[in-house]
Amino acid sequence: xxxxxxxxxxxxxxxxxxxxxxxxxxxxxxxxxxxxxVEVWATDRWxxxxxxxxxxxxxxxxxxxxxxxxxxxxxxxxxGFTPRAVLALGLLRLAQPGLVAPALGEDRPxxx
Length: 112
Prior knowledge:
Layout: H1 4-8, E1 17-21, H2 27-36, E2 39-44, H3 49-58, E3 65-69, E4 85-88, E5 91-94
């Protein structure tokens, strides 16, 4: 029988979008991009994107890790931006309605 953690952690596939909320120095974002080939939005309120971009460029992942400066409940993403998984402060979770939809603005009528 699967544990709760096993049921809530998605399998990551190359090219999949991942939102890394509270990424800090973006080490988790770099790890996910490098190990799984996913595209990561490394989002943090306290660490400047330029600092994270330096680390990302250093390992050659600037095409897959995108540093973002934002507050979790005021994300600057366009309508329709829907990551497959969210890593929030180190906890990987499925991007499902009710979990991250309000943070992405998808609790508005007409959004899934």
